[in-house]
Amino acid sequence: MTEQIHEQATVTTRTLHDGLLELEDRPPRVSLFSMIREDWRVNSHMKSRFVLVLFRCAHASYNDRRRLTRALTAPYRFVYRLIVDWVMGIDIPCRVTLGRGVVLYHSVGIVINEAVKMGDGCIIRHGVTIGNKLGDDGESYPPTIGNRVEFGAGAIVIGDILIGDEAIIGAGSVVTRDVAPGAVVAGNPAREIARHAPRVR
Ligand SMILES: CC(C)(COP(=O)(O)OP(=O)(O)OC[C@H]1O[C@@H](n2cnc3c(N)ncnc32)[C@H](O)[C@@H]1OP(=O)(O)O)[C@@H](O)C(=O)NCCC(=O)NCCS
């Protein structure tokens, strides 16, 4: 039974990530335009493409090293927040580090803490929360997400934890501890139900 689950999980992950893995032969640093093109390619929903184009521009504007450019583009960041957060209900602040080729499914009710760093090729379904936990020292501790991590619908990941490459977070799971690379976790609290060897290069 365990072996069956293991095999199933491996097949599911491989199918889902096949398209995303193509992106791995890319140069390490790319232009804003290339980032947008990669997102466009891996997303089939127009809504997701739209959100990601707006996000990439807001992120680039926030991270511009020239103070004047940052100041001049501040109104755009406000418009981004207005449309994507207030109107569409997707809270992905422009400070968030999203890796290349991120996939948004359904693009509803996603909340990501602004200090989160996420690797390439992750899949984020509706209702996902990736949030911080306040430490006793009053500091905010967000999770760090590896490459090609898949988040099931309604998954909640909180605190100063590390989600390894190609981990799969089951729908509705609550994750408050590190997840090993290639692990499939589910439930509240999330427990490992299978593991496959991640294709880390
Ligand atoms: C986590 C997940 C990838 C596991 O898939 P799988 O490897 O095929 O696992 P199985 O369905 O064989 O389930 C294995 C065990 O884990 C349990 N399980 C699976 N997913 C679970 C979840 N999200 N929460 C709690 N338990 C879960 C099953 O009940 C089963 O338990 P059992 O052995 O006691 O019967 C999958 O269930 C999942 O949640 N995918 C997210 C997909 C999603 O969000 N879809 C929404 C599209 S809109």
Automatic annotation (TrEMBL):
It comes from the Bacteria. One of its GO terms (molecular function) is acyltransferase activity. Keywords: Acyltransferase, Transferase. The keyword Transit peptide does not apply. Gene3D superfamilies: Hexapeptide repeat proteins (2.160.10.10). InterPro entries: Hexapep, LbH_SAT, Trimer_LpxA-like_sf. Belongs to the transferase hexapeptide repeat family. This is Colanic acid biosynthesis acetyltransferase. It comes from Caballeronia udeis.
